[in-house]
Amino acid sequence: MYQLLKIILFKLDAERAHYLTTNTLNFLNRLGLTSLVRSLMVGKVTDKPVEFGGLRFRNGLGMAAGFDKNAEYLEVLDKLGFGSVEIGTVTPVGQDGNPKPRLFRLPKDTGLINRMGFNNKGVEEAAGKIEAYRNKFPQSSLIIGGNIGKNKVTPNEDAHLDYEKCFVRLYPLVDYFVVNVSSPNTPNLRALQDKDSLKVIFETLRNAEQKLVGNEATKPLFVKISPDNSFEQIDDILELVNTYKLTGIVATNTTISRDDLKTDSAIVDEIGAGGLSGKPIQQRSDEVVRYIRSKDSNVAIIGVGGIQTGSDAVDKMKAGANLVQVYSCFVYEGPKMISRITSALHKVGD
Predict the structure, then answer these.
(1) Kindly report the CA angle at 194 between 191 and 197, in degrees rounded to 5?
(2) pLDDT score of 349 more than 80
(3) Residues recognised as catalytic
């Protein structure tokens, strides 16, 4: 069914199609029709619990950050069968992001290019949505991650303060945090992956947590890294992960590389700047996951990048991921991929 709908959706601007899809799903949910949608478009979701960082995920499939920036679709994503949703990237103050158009499909490559620029309604809006969801569904097993970033106008030397504001506000509401320092769409953000910059951010968040909860168990904290990092840069990040006792790494964000694409180079050049996701980054994302696991057997890894099929998800897990996330896959494969991927993940380790 989705493949027929996709023909219509792909005639629309990619960002417009995204909001049409998500808002339609929310509308159907308000009408009480999500179970019907799940039956017709998803099928059987196979849950196999995954545990790490003190969290228990009902299955190993999560929706990656970027899909639900403002925590507006938690209920419907929960009912469709995702084990977790990473909301955001959230910034302290709402911002429009980069000028439109800013989201583009590469159908020949099963990929997307985006230069959204952390468009979101701000941390207060997200906090309110999560709180409302928690109150409405107190028994929900959905794991909610908070992906946090800095506002575009905040200079890098003050970035740690933006991360702290989001961290403190969302701390009672989300199950884990992801520090996003790897998006290519906010000027100079990737410079925060530098060792000294990350030290300041992690130390700030750990101090903030100490003030919030004292010596109680810490909330899982991850850092999301770029696939364009060298292995030497990843080594530096791993050192900090251990120093500041982070739970793990989200690997990986989008890439600025345009190598080996099937899409005509003139079309790619016309699209311009932005982060490439989807199938084209699968190999590099898997390489990064595999490298991290080879260097540290204990660090938790959330693997994201290039997953389109159940076997892709299994490959990511075999490379060393504890959990996988998707975004582009939802665009190209639709809700059916939830049943396909959870079914494949159920067989891992059996």
Answers:
(1) 90
(2) no
(3) 183
